[in-house]
Amino acid sequence: MIVFPVENHRNREDGSLVYPVHSRRSGGLSIGINLFPDKKVCSFDCPYCEIFPFATTAQFDLETMKDELTRTVNNARHRAIPIQDICFSGNGEPTLSPHFEKALEAVRDIQKKTVPGAKLVAITCGAGLLRDEIFSCLQNAAVSYGLDVWLKLDAGDEAWYRVINRSAIPFDKLIAKIKEFVSVCPATLQTMLCSIGGALPSGVEDAAWNDLALELAKTGNVRQFQLYGKARPSAEDPFAEAAPASYLEKRAKTLEETLACGGVEVPVSIYT
Ligand code: SF4
User: Fold this and answer.
1) CATH 3.40.640.10 assigned to 18-271
2) pTM
3) Could you say which of 68, 117, 146, 239 would form a disulfide bridge with 18 (CB–CB 3.0 to 4.6 Å)?
4) What is the average per-residue pLDDT within 92-118?
5) Residue 195 pLDDT level (bands cut at 50, 70, 90)
6) 230 Cβ partners below 8 Å, 6+ apart?
7) In terms of C-beta density within 10 A (0-12 exposed, 13-18 middle, 19 or more buried), how is residue 248 classed?
8) How many helices (H) and strands (E) in the chain?
9) In angstroms, rounded to a whole number, what is the distance separating the alpha carbons of residues 125 and 92?
10) Site to substitute for ligand 1 among 93, 164, 165, 194, most atoms within 8 A of C-beta
């Protein structure tokens, strides 16, 4: 079911494949594509994750997704609501879905025909980059028609990665793939800044993250750094807690200084 007017956020457990939301990061209407209507699928287990445990009998179906997307786009246009982007996000890591490549192709087709001005976005934790076919798929889409890949980069060192992402993927392996990807392909880097178990990242972690951010920025392929705070409830609250806005501002300033010292200019945005 497509719900208009658009709410600030959606009910993730309602089994929808397509959902319009007001996105703080897009600054307007974002149409989300959810490849996992039945349950959360992700290689990360972030304590701040907004997806509460759930299970439905809904199944992903490409034709249904195409119909819903077309109707949602038409509804928004009928109401003269500008669509900022169409975004692969949903209940987990989209690149883990066996339908990802076909769905991307279909969404691109609809976007090109109906809202060519809207951005196409894929939000990823980077796990898919470990598979050559997904690496190539994202790279080709980014280079050939401007898919904006929003890559998660929460941690600069293994210690914080284990706390904030809790993934079985080795940190070094994942970071090596992220570096490889950003060296050949434009990407937006997203970082969640919050406290976990009452602790913010250590000074050592901050420094490691800044160094990593600079190294990636030096490729010339980082479109933007997005630093975001915890704004919505998660299943493990209050284990993960929002950091003060002043902390996000301090981290953004330090990053800007690091980039400037390294002779690189990349926009840094904060979403509290
Ligand atoms: S990567 Fe995203 S979907 Fe996966 S656990 Fe973390 S916040 Fe949740």
Assistant:
1) no
2) 0.93
3) 68
4) 97
5) very high
6) 48, 192, 194, 240, 241, 242, 243
7) buried
8) 7, 9
9) 9
10) 93
